[in-house]
Amino acid sequence: MSTAVRMVNITKTFSGLTANDKINFEVKKGEVHGLLGENGAGKTVLMKILYGMHRPDQGQIFVDSQEVRIENSAKAISFGIGMVHQHFMLVPSLTVAENVVLGLEPTKYAYLLNIDKTLKDIKSLSDRYRLLVNPKAVVSTIPVGEQQRVEILKALYRRAEILILDEPTSILTPQEVESLFEAIRALKQQGKSVIFITHKLKEVCAICDRITVLKKGKVVGTVEKTQTNSDELAEMMVGHEVLYTFEREHTTPGKIILQIENLNAFNDRKLPALKNVNLGIHEFEILGLAGIEGNGQTELAEVLTGLREPKSGKISFLDETITKISTHERMERGFANVPEDRQKTGLVLDFSVLENLILGRQDKPPFATKWLTLDFPNATRFAEQSIKEYSINTPSDHTLARYLSGGTQQRVVIAREFSRRPKFIVASQPTRGLDIGATEYVHRKLVEMRDQGCAILLITADLDEMLALSDRIAVIYEGRIVAVRERSKANELELGLLMTGGKCE
To answer: Which fold has domain 3-238?
Structure first.
């Protein structure tokens, strides 16, 4: 196969930090090429350079063997390069057709949208690449899997020959993942080149022809899929063997720690988000909550932690009603919260590591003196102990949280929450955006807390994670709990069907 794109000696630095260090990267025509690496490895920066969002400090880019200068995204598109971002760039109030042609609208009578030609062109692209969409549907009304197809169609409408997919399966059900893979195979058959960025090694091995691994801004190696496996790729990424399964002490769920009865709540748009939710979570148990994002998971986590007031229903903790008590009181009684957005709601980014580690307890002994001033010696001892125990990679306890990597920020959140010795933990998307090494660490800490008798509600969009960690799995759809399964009796296909409103006999 001839070369579609070649990047030679690409180097990029930010404030003295080298993100890409003389990287050589090549993608062939008609190839699906996986791009792997830990957080901070440089893969996103490399792809942003290819798509014109960053300019390299040095290096060359060749498209179809011709050297090109990609100064912006418009230039990248002109060279046949398209990118589907992890967070979609669609206008929710417009239709599928209007989103696809936005900026390149076919017109008639000089200024009117030629809707007939638009629909015809989109149907042709949709059929050719097996990207089934309803061009007349408003984007806000269609599921995320279909929205992703719209993003791909946008790139293809602009004649993309090289398509970059950034974490394309992170919010998809197993059925939607398989639909995406069918589309990728169709793109490959038509001679398109696809760059597939993901943390999910199983999917890389399932769909890619070759895989390039980056580590600390450098290429570790490029391997043929037929000559490697998940274990080897993981070791290339992190530099040591990674265990995907681990021994868990046998525990029998104990008494119910948290009981939810007939819980109802609205979302931010004052629409029903939770509808008569009933759940009981036991000590020595991880209860997984499976569902496509937007089906009430966020609202449930907020209601349980006191950040959202329920419309009706009852929450009991250790047989006491806590429905109306504050977030702080819940924390005092034994709640811990690992929020889904560590930067917005888990940390104060302009506070130091030390300040974030004692957040919520800064006004009480041992961190406060009798004059309610900060007891720096005790706070420093606690911070140093936490940094060591939770392997927080920071220059010092005075480093601001915003300068830490995503995985290190998550360790700070977990250290703060777990060091309280909680009885109940809400863990929302605890490994989102983390590399494989950081993910392994978070999984071990959750199991450790469960084995110590904690009750844990695990909310995650990653079904592999759900199945690996949970003792029971509840499925939420449109704000209702539609099924609860023992882990031993659950599988991806059934869960995926339930998550989309299907029914299993």
So the answer is: Rossmann fold (3.40.50)
